[in-house]
Structure formats: C-alpha cells, structure tokens
Amino acid sequence: MAEQSIPEARTPVADDSGPSPAPAGVTRRALLGTAGATGLVLGAAGAAVGYAAAPDRETPLSSVGSDEVMFHGKHQPGILQGLQARGHLIAFDLAPGAGRKEAAALMRRWSDTARRLMAGEPAGSGDTAVARDAGPSSLTVTFGFGHSFFARTGLEKQRPVALDPLPDFSSDHLDKSRSDGDLWVQIGANDALVAFHALRAIQKDAGKAAKVRWQMNGFNRSPGATAHPMTARNLMGQIDGTRNPKPAEPDFDKRIFVPASGEPAWMANGSYAVVRRIRMLLDDWEGLSLKEQEAVIGRRKSDGAPLSGGTETSEMDLEKLDANGELVVPINAHARISRPDQNGGAAMLRRPFSFHDGIDADGTPDAGLLFVCWQSDPLRGFVTVQRKLDRGDALSTYIRHEASGLFAVPGGAGEGEYVGQALLEG
User: Fold this and answer.
1) Within a domain: residue 52?
2) Do the domain assignments include residue 302?
3) Dyp-type peroxidase C-terminal domain: from which residue to which, for each copy (predicted)?
4) 296-341: per-residue pLDDT in tens?
5) What is the reported pLDDT for 9?
6) Is 133 a catalytic residue?
7) Are 394 and 380 in contact (CB under 8 A)?
8) CA distance linking residue 298 with residue 312, whole number of Å
9) List of the chain residues with pLDDT < 70
10) CA proximity to 86, closest of 223, 225, 195
C-alpha cells in the first residue's frame, strides 16, 4: 500500500450551523426533510420520528443521487473521479469458442449499458429496477483487458509490452483463481443499490460470451459523513492518500495516461490498472501501541501529519533526529519508503476500496484494501514502488497480498463508439 498514491476522498461540506426554529406553517415532517437535505444529524428520537413519517416528496433529502459522471470522454470514467462509497470489481474469461467477434459485440453491449446507467436511465430490456428510485449517484463503469485476452481474440500483436505479467513479490500469497482474467470491470457509485444494479446489468450482458472469473466488493466513507472534506482513512484507521498525484501537477498526465502518440495506438489516452486484494492483519496491527503504529507508517494517526512535524500536507523531513539522535521518521517507515523522491519519481494514482468479507473460523476478520492504482507504465509505477517496499517496509508485517491483476484500460469512447473499438475493429 504505497502511501504516496491513494487519492483524496472529497466529500460535500455539511451545513453545521444548526437547525433554525421552524417558521409558522412548517410541519415537523417538512423540517425533518430539510434537515436531511442540509446534512444535519438527527438524534435517536428524531430519527425514529422521521422514519415513521411518510416521506416528504417535495423536499429532497440529499443531492448525492443527482451527481452524474459522463460516460463519453478522453479518458474512461472511474479514474479521475474521487473515491466512491461503494464499489465492485469483477473479472471475466471469454467462453470457450468466443473470440474477437464475440468480444466486440460484448464490449458494445457493455458500453451501451454503462452509458445508460451512468445517465440514470434503465439498463435496457430486462432491467431489474433495483435502482429505479435513485439518480446516477456518481456511477462509473470502467473496462480493461487482461494479458490473456489477446491470445483468446487473435490480437497478440496488439498486446502492449506494458501488460507483461507482474513479477513475484515476497509479500505475495496469491490465489490464482481470484487473479487476472480476460476482461475486467470496475464499478463505483455513491449508493450501494446503484452500484449493485450496474454489477447485475454487466453480468447479465455477458450472456454466453463470457463467464465470471472472480468478483470483489468494496466500500469507502459516504459523501457528507465528515463535517468538511478530508482524506480517506483505511481499515487500520490511518489517513491514507495524502501524497496522491494531482491533475494540477505538470507531469500528472505523463505519469498516469498513455500519450496520444503512444504505443500501441489503441491505448492512446488510456492507462494501466494494477488490482491487488491486500488483506490487513488487523488483530496484529491493533495489538500495537499508538506510538508503534505511527512509527510503522511515519505519520501521526490523528491527522496524518508526518512525524517530523507540521500538518498532513507538510513536507516530510527525512533527516530530522530526536533527542536521542534517532531518525524521527524511521528508516523503514512506509511513508518514507513509498515517497516518489525515494523511487526515482515513480507515482501511481490510487482509487482503492476497503473490503470486509466476514470473520474466519478463528475470529480473524477477512478485511483490508482492494488496491487499484493507475499509471502510464506499470514497470515504472507500481513495480518500482512495490520492489522498494518489498525490501524493508515496516508495514509488510501487517498485510498480505492475496490476489492480483494487471489490465490495459483504453481511452474513453467517443459518441457512438464503444470502449476498445480501436483495438477490436482496427
């Protein structure tokens, strides 16, 4: 989990000015509806009353549902957007006998469905109506191709060199059945039903052309859950994503996206996604003292500031010593090792989801991070940083990489086009 590369989760700022006395003629039901719209938190009694009353159809409770991301564009959706409250990752293998023709038809179906759902419309014929009452809720659907896809479709000559399999790492305990795949789909939304609706539509659209290889579910903090925009926390309780690359940086596009003149041509404006299921050994982690946890990360747990001082965004002083002459930021601290300036400038844009898939028989939580990172070149991005982490990151003791995938994600589709059309019809 490279500290420098998790995106900031930006949520709407709640109105914390407090409720005003109800004007004459305003019913308690209407007042409760207004409170929901401004992000105020009801007490237990108020919440019970609000639940029992019929919904106020004239006053929306929130604007989250109306937020819409465009399907068509230079880049595919689901890369540059902020963290979403709910996510599904799913990989497919083409069915026996299915090839380039079937893959093209599938990508056309999937692209049309994604366009519809992201606009808040039904998926088409056979829509399940799961999200009938909700708006788009910032839904994004992103598509990618795995290494094996190109042999299955007779397109080996179009397979990018950057898609070569990732090397082995010492922290890997990979389940091959939950790794890789011919096709990969990332679904994110700020409403769980909207996200599930998209997942179900994508699965149904696959028909006989492809079958599910693996599927994983994740979550993040909901928009409006904090009083002001904050960087996200992971399941270890750490603020996670402080040094994520930002679009305003002059070399952002170079690091994250394949240039329009890049090779292969069909990957222009695309990116490469590394997907890792990283289990957090929470019982071991939570057994550490606060001071020990902060030493592992190199940052304060309360506010994400570097141990060398300042605020979350302050530059880390890697040379600062304490009264005993010891480095304030330990030599093996995760934040130190994963810094771009400690890795030849390597950087990744991360949009992860946390996951919790139940409790094992011994009481251990099966929980952690669905790591998703984006870069123009995985060898210079993820591989460079992970190799450095593999050689001495203090955090490695408390995590385990259990599944892995690398996918070529082409640029966005233009009006009337489908994702991957330049590859499949070129």
Assistant:
1) no
2) yes
3) 231-412
4) 999 999 999 999 999 999 999 999 999 999 999 999 999 999 987 7
5) 40
6) no
7) no
8) 12
9) 1-62
10) 195
Residue 321, Cβ neighbours under 10 Å: how many?
11
Interval 349-388: pLDDT, tens: 999 999 999 999 999 999 999 999 999 999 999 999 999 9
- 90 by Cβ neighbours in 10 Å (0-12 / 13-18 / 19+) ranks as buried
Domain-embedded: residue 307: yes
Rounded CA Rg of the chain: 23
Asked whether residue 36 is domain-assigned, the answer is no
Range of the domain at 143: 3-8+67-424
One-letter-per-residue 3-state SS of the chain? CCHHHCCCCCCCCCCCCCCCCCCCCCCHHHHHHHHHHHCCCCCHHHHHHHHHCCCCCCCCCCCHHHCCCCCCCCCCCCCCCCCCCEEEEEEEEECCCCCHHHHHHHHHHHHHHHHHHHCCCCCCCCCCCCCCCCCCCCCEEEEEECHHHHHHCCCHHHCCHHHCCCCCCCCECCCHHHCCCCEEEEEEECCHHHHHHHHHHHHHHHCCCEEEEEEEEEECCCCCCCCCCCCCECCCCCECCCCCCCCCCCCHHHHHCCCCCCCCHHHCCCEEEEEEEEEECHHHHHCCCHHHHHHHHCECCCCCCECCCCCCCCCCCCCCECCCCCECCCCCCHHHHCCHHHCCCCCCEECCEEEEEEECCCCCEEEEEEEEEEECCCHHHHHHHHHHHHCCCHHHHHEEEEEEEEEEECCCCCCCCCCCHHHHCC
Domain count for the chain: 1
| The amino acid at 110 | W
Phi, psi of 156 (to 5 degrees): -55, -35
CA angle, 127 as apex, 126 and 129 as ends, to 5°? 140
Torsions phi, psi of 24, nearest 5? -55, 135
| Tokens of residue 274, six digits | 């590394």
The first and second tokens of residue 194, run together, are 């909207």
